[in-house]
Amino acid sequence: MKKPILSTVVAAFGLLSVLVSVPVPQAGAQGNTSKEFVPPIVFQAAGPTADSIQGSVDEFRAALGEPNNGNAPGPLATGRREINWDGGGANDTTTAPVTPFNNFLNTRGAQFTTPGTGLSQAPPSGGPQGGLAGLFNNPTYATTFSTFSPLRLFTPVGSNITDALFFVPGTNGDVPATIRGFGAAFTDVDQPDGSGPGKKQGNRGASTLIEYFGPHGELLFSSFVPASPGDGSLSFFGILFGDARIARVRITSGDIAPGPDDDGKHDIVMMDDFIYGEPQPLH
C-alpha cells in the first residue's frame, strides 16, 4: 500500500491515484460529525478510462481483504462484498426503477433507496429497452457514459441521491449491520469545482459527494469524488476504517437528477461497481 500523504490531489487530466489518511473537509454534510474522529484511509482515482482507476480499485479490494464472498450467507469473519450490476457481464436489459432496491438485500446484505422514483440498472445504450438513453429519453446518454465493468450502470431516477443500508447477508434484511469500508466507481464526473480546464466551466461546485454515517446517524466522513473532464471518464472513491462502523452511505451523484443533457449547466453522473467490507451484526 502506498504511504499516506497529507493532502488530496485532484488531477484535471489523466490519472489520479492517492491514499489519504487525514480528514477531507466536510462539504454538504448532514448529521453530526463524530467528536472522536479517527481518520479512515482514503482511496481515490480519476481518469479517461477504466485503466485509470483499476489500480486504486484493486488496492481498495486488497485492503478490505480476501475473498470476495459473493452470495455466501454471513456473517463471515473476513472478506468483502461487491455489486457490479451486470448480471454476470452479459445482461444488457434495463430494469424498471424501484425503491427500495432489494435485489442484493439477502444475497449481499445491501439495500438501496432514493427519494426519487426508484433505482435502475441499465447499459449506456442498446439493450431491449435502449439503455440509459431510453430510460431517460435522452439519446446523448448513449455516448456520455462508459462502464468500469460492462455492461450495466446503476442510477436513481427522479433524484440524484442514493442511500445504502447494510444487513447480514442471508438474513433478508432482519439483522442490521455495519461495514469497515465502502467504495464506488462513477462515470462522467467532469469537474470538481467551477474553474480549471475541461469542457465545463462556470460557477458550479463539485457535483458528486459520498457521505458515511454511523449507526446513530452521526456523520463519520464525507468527501467529493475526484473528477476527470470529458465524456465517459471514470472515477473511484472509497474509505476504510479499522473496524466496522459504517451503517449508512449516502451518494449524491451529479448536480441534478438524470434527464437533462450533460453540458455546461449540469454534470450528470452514473454509478458503477460498489465494493464494501463484509457486513458485521450491529450490536
Structure report:
The chain is mainly beta. It has one domain (16-28, 39-281). Helix content is 10%, strand content 28%. The protein contains four helices and 15 strands. It has helices spanning 51-64, 105-108, 131-135, 141-144, and strands at residues 16-20, 41-47, 80-83, 110-113, 118-122, 153-157, 161-166, 177-178, 181-187, 209-213, 219-224, 234-240, 248-252, 270-277, 280-281. The strands form four sheets. Strands 1-2-12-9-14-3 form a six-stranded antiparallel β-sheet, with helices on one face. A five-stranded antiparallel β-sheet has the order 4-7-13-10-11. Strands 5-6 form a two-stranded antiparallel ribbon. A hairpin with a 5-residue loop joins strand 10 (209-213) and strand 11. The longest helix is centred in the first third of the chain and has 14 residues, at 51-64.
